[in-house]
Amino acid sequence: MSVTPLSSRSADKLPDPSGRLLWFAMLGPLQVEVAASRAPVAGIRARSLLILLLLHRNQVVRLDRLIEFIWEAPPATAVPQVRNLVAELRRVLQAAGQEIIETSLGGYRLVATDDEVDVAQAEHHVAEGTTAAAEGDHRLALECFGRSLALWRGEPLGDVAPSLALAWRPRFTELRRRALLGKARSRLNLEMFEQAVIELLDAVVEFPFEEELRLLLVTALYRSGRSTAALKSCRDARHYFLDELGVDPSPALRSLEVEILRGGSPR
Question: Which residue ranges does the record assign to the Bacterial transcriptional activator domain (predicted)?
């Protein structure tokens, strides 16, 4: 995979796809760019078909599989309708100067590189950040996780068939969760506590059930000199898990609270 060198742009700047012939963005409402121009994809079925092909790019997706996700109750005309949708998508993508959607073996295959798909780029940056963190290069890790998060533009799969969103949104959610956790850990390792607090407050709202985000928030608050706020965050977490999940806080959260009360230095 060819990516822009890490030193050439900041972690939080959205990558510029202008140098690419094709750019498919799914981390938010679907966006397609062909030859640096926006190429609108109209209709929930056309968008669903394109996203299915993108998620299985460079693989043949059978016609019956496409129909299964596009319609909850497929009509008798589903097969010709899919063919019409493919023809429309080919017209949208024709400025690329090559056949992007191929007919093959009873289905269709969309040909695209990982450089042309935002989800693939986001996954690559998370993997790169995870490796950097494991090697102790927390500044590089912060850069990588920031790049992944910068690709997000809003709620993904909100403009596609419900069955498709239900099947694939968990993968997208997990990708974002990993990026947020990785970035927060990197901030703390670099002792960037104030920035970590700002980002973690939003992350906890987005992922209220993710205990590690809450642990990181408590730690960032305490290590930035806000012990009262850190203890309140501990209490909020305990009450949330008891009220919403009916479970006691983990030993890690209890130990962190005790450490703060003793005036220790949680890590």
Answer: 117-261
Structure tokens given for 207: 């992922």
Mean pLDDT by runs of 10 across the 267 residues of the chain is 31 50 95 92 96 96 95 95 96 86 94 96 98 98 98 95 94 97 98 97 95 95 93 90 80 86 70
Paired tokens of 48: 């669903």
Nearest Cα neighbor of 229 from 244, 240, 214, 243 is 214
DSSP state of 56: T
Query: Which secondary-structure segment (H or E) carries 186?
Result: helix 162-189
Quick one: pLDDT at residue 12? Answer: 39
Distance CA 91, CA 101 (A): 10
**Helix ranges restricted to H, the chain:** 44-55, 63-70, 78-93, 118-134, 138-150, 162-189, 193-206, 211-223, 227-240, 251-261
Task: Compute the distance between CA of residue 247 and CA of residue 114 in angstroms, rounded to an integer.
Answer: 41
Contact, 104 vs 58, CB < 8 A? no
Q: Is residue 142 part of a domain?
A: no
Burial class (CB in 10 A: 0-12, 13-18, 19+), 132: buried
The residue type at 157? L
CATH number at residue 250: 1.25.40.10
pLDDT tens string 184-213: 999 999 999 999 999 999 999 999 999 999
**Whole domain around residue 20: which residue ranges?**
6-116
